[in-house]
Amino acid sequence: MPRRCGNGHLGVFVPRAAAASSDFERNQRSSQRYVNSPTTPLFSKRSCLFGLDAARDAIAERDEAILVEGYFDVLALHDVGVRNVVGVMGVGVVTEQLELAARFSPSRRVVLALDADAAGAAAVKRLCEDVFPELAEAAGVDAHVAAFSDAKDAADFVADRRGRGHVDGAIADEARKLFDAATPWADVCHLQPAAEASVVESVTVELAPDGKRLETAR
User: pTM score, two decimals?
Assistant: First the structure.
């Protein structure tokens, strides 16, 4: 698929692995779905957001830039009418991408809605520690964090609602309410240690050869 930067110029094409049709193909292929292009004089991932050329006017109109992880997350939300959405192309979100998104919002509001998995949570934690404080102070970026409570990512969120028979307008309204209610970065970062401390470890109970119980926490 084509990856364009904010000015609409084509930077690179991004190959995506097709679904394997057999166990043999699945074993032969890498688990990586996308082949990322290297940095060149024509393209740098750090200074590019997928879909920005199509989203910039909507970001200005709604005064909010939504940042999601993947290409299909962007396409799914645009397809239901939420057009102020861009993709960061993975969890390696960098300062330049956040500043670029904020540039088109009059109040410099950005909402980060990464995948609801361990990698997404780790990315938010890293941003809390290394990026958000400096961005707020030096660049005036008003960063927020949103989460899909019952879906892995934006594409799954849209697919789930369509599967239930919801019309696109209703899906768009629900997504916008979720983004409008996003948590300010300072509150998210403040809650991070408490959230980590409250995680209950799971315990696996097994029997040792002598018949005694073994409990393994993880």
Answer: 0.73
